[in-house]
Predict the structure.
Amino acid sequence: MYRNASDIWPPRFERVPAVEPWVDSTIDDSAHAYDAVKHHTWYQNLRPTLDALAAVSHDGDIVVDYSAGTGIFTEEFLRLYPDRQIGLVIVDASPKFLRLALEKFRADDRTAYRRLRYLKEERRLQQLEEVLPESLRNRGVDGLCSTNAVHLYDDLRGALASWANIVRSGGYVLIQSGNIDNPDAPDDSWFIDRTVERVQAVARELVKSDPIYAAFREGFDDTERTEAYDRLRHSYFLPIRPLDFYLDSLRDTGFAVETVEAQPVEAIVAEWSDFLCAYHEGVLGWAGGCSRAGECDPGEELIALRKRLLCESMAKLFDGKPSFHACWTHIRCSKT
């Protein structure tokens, strides 16, 4: 029985790193903007993993919330299961997102925080074992959850190997993503980032036909320019990989795959468009140009027009319907 949440952690474990500058930084508006997605209908995709964690975990467990962002998954778990006494280590690469997570949960002794830094000379993110203290590495963690993120891991096997170094034998790993090419997905559903690829043709037709978007016609047929923006888009939204790639990678790094489920989720077109507008350079950067592709950044007026084009293109892609079905894949594993 854990009378105090602080009893969960190893002796002398620092929940909040004392020497990292992000801890006392000002909260960035972009973190609040990202955090707002928790109110979107499609974020119901978290519920199966939340319930799965409640089912497999026990009081006293320590669980890593990996690629946690602003801590939306942790927030929902604590809301739905307020009496559960498990330790949740919120791990992310963004100091801005971690700062907001800390603001939300600082007073809750069940939460801890670690940042994965990007090592420029080695061209990689730190591994999980590099940011957890020795006391926790020696103990091991009982579980790990990764929600709405695994499809972004360029070095998937490297990430999974680092999980295997920290998760205890028999421990649980819960993964989900809306961007895994699952052959069991319902026929009428989308892998959600595939909308980003499909919207390109719709947007180009609108630019060609609608005088409102005439400002975006410069360089329209330049093949090299188009390829540059394709590369930029793929740096934001990685090409969707097949389910077997994930399952094989998990098995090869020391995990036994126990269950795989494809579940439909309703996504409101306007909400998804609003989310993509935060990444408008990556989605439709060719409409007006951007410095990340070697061109000048547009002014506020053209950026507003680009976002309008994105939203109109999304509405047209779905024939004016208010929502569409997306498919999320949920994978439960155990450490062998």
